[in-house]
TrEMBL record:
Taxonomic lineage: Bacteria, Pseudomonadati, Pseudomonadota, Gammaproteobacteria, Lysobacterales
Family annotation (PANTHER family): INNER MEMBRANE PROTEIN WITH PEPSY TM HELIX
Transmembrane regions listed in the UniProt entry: 25-47, 161-182, 194-212
Presence of keyword Cell cycle: no
UniProt KW keywords: Membrane, Transmembrane, Transmembrane helix
Pfam families listed in its UniProt record: PepSY_TM_like_2
Name this polypeptide is given: Peptidase
InterPro entries assigned: PepSY_TM-like_2 (IPR032307)
Organism of provenance: Dyella jiangningensis
Amino acid sequence: MKPVARSHNKVGSSRAFWLKQLHQWHWISAALCLVGMLLFAVTGFTLNHAGQIEAKAQTVHRTAQLPATLLKAVAGDDERKGVSVPAMVADWIGAQLDIDVAGRAADWSSDEIYVSMPRPGGDAWLSIDRESGKVEAERSTRGVIAYLNDLHKGRHAGAAWGWFIDVFALACVIFSVTGLLLLKMHAAQRGATWPLVAFGLLLPLVLALIFIH
């Protein structure tokens, strides 16, 4: 009987080890993606009902006039793509219009310089007339919900947000896989485990096959 007892002890210690590991990875991944999951769940709902949730854009239009000393820096009729405006012009625009165009890609045509500045929940652009020096800028916002919806899609949110989404997605995968393994280890004491898992798998599959064409 002693070898059998040792075998049971070995299995029990192995199970305890994996349970501890899975619980640890499960709660760590849950902590990492908790706020992100709430954000993406709420914005998933708002995106699904975007037609019923109105987003009225608020637009601000501003103009200014480049001084003659700076007009020389943008004058000409050459065409360029993705070339930022000169630093001294960008500094002047920042001081006069409170718009940061430093280092941003701009399209230079024969008559104007155009800078597009899309962002989550809104849009913005700036143009400089290369002959007269007239500067026009417009900024629009569509509200908090539109901002959060664009974050959900990663729209114009920048590289840092893109990295966050990647890390968040990995944390969600770990959370889901460790949760599935914990379900497996506790399934013997919880008879409804696999029927519920199967239902969670079949429901979206059936809906997709029947109602999505």
